Amino acid sequence: MTSAHAQKFPAVQGGGSLILAWQIKNKNVLVVGGGEVAAGRILNCLNADALVTVVCPPSGLNPEVAYRVGQGQVSHTPRNFEPSDLDGADMVLVAVDDPEASTQIWKLCKERRIPANIADVPPECDFYFGSVHRDGPLQIMVSTNGKGPRLASSIRKFIAKQLPKDAGKAIEAIGQLRAKLRTVAPNQDEGPKRMGWMTKISDAYTWDQMCDFTDEDMDNLLRFYASNEVPSLETLMLMRENPDLSKTELFDGSFGFSVGA
């Protein structure tokens, strides 16, 4: 292959991390420690619907972790870590002020091939926690690959300020429409058409307009799927006022305009 052809492709930038949305719902996550860092890790895992067990003497629990233990949001083993605590763990998060103990836990995790994160020790981490912006279903993570956590937080805040208002609500609406579409067109061979039509929908309306979609609007949108068309917002609003309006009436200009693809 010539150098001219090679220039068409992205250059490889080594040293990065593979950024994934790791699904840990109903997975067993072991958290060793009960301080401020552990509290943040616990909340992240609970937000992802994980089953969290905290190993820490009661005297080491900060108010937030103690609250979650008291509310039954996490399981609590009230003592220092023991190797048997790793039995059944799908992920291990260590947040204790004892470098030697942390390293020993990390080595045990490596032996058992359990992914682990040792707080503030990048070389002993299979993955990093980034700075996350959350708005409903929208999650944006900024990572500096362990080099500058404080900078990651600043960058995350900057990005969040640039986002449209109610972006999460708009995404929720589109997600509901996508779920409805799968009931209308469930066959696997319709996948490309579904994806193409949803792309059209996402590009056709503003964030504010998508936020205001009602169940009726979504049902009306689905009426245009078979023909792979997308109605204008004006048409969609007209259908609210005239629920029995047929597509023929809309397309033939009976109401002073017609719908384009």
Automatic annotation (TrEMBL):
A biological process from GO: siroheme biosynthetic process
Annotated signal peptide: none
Reactions performed catalytically: precorrin-2 + NAD(+) = sirohydrochlorin + NADH + 2 H(+)
Tree of life domain: Eukaryota
Keyword NAD on entry: yes
Enzyme nomenclature, EC number: 1.3.1.76
GO terms assigned for molecular function: ferrochelatase activity; precorrin-2 dehydrogenase activity
Keyword annotations of the record: NAD, Oxidoreductase, Porphyrin biosynthesis
Pathway: Porphyrin-containing compound metabolism; siroheme biosynthesis; sirohydrochlorin from precorrin-2: step 1/1
UniProt-listed Pfam families: NAD_binding_7 (PF13241), Sirohm_synth_C (PF14823), Sirohm_synth_M (PF14824)
Sequence ranges assigned to domain Siroheme synthase central in this UniProt record: 135-162
Presence of the UniProt keyword Oxidoreductase in the record: yes
Ranges of residues in domain Siroheme biosynthesis protein Met8 C-terminal: 164-231
Record protein name field: precorrin-2 dehydrogenase
Natural source organism: Thyridium curvatum
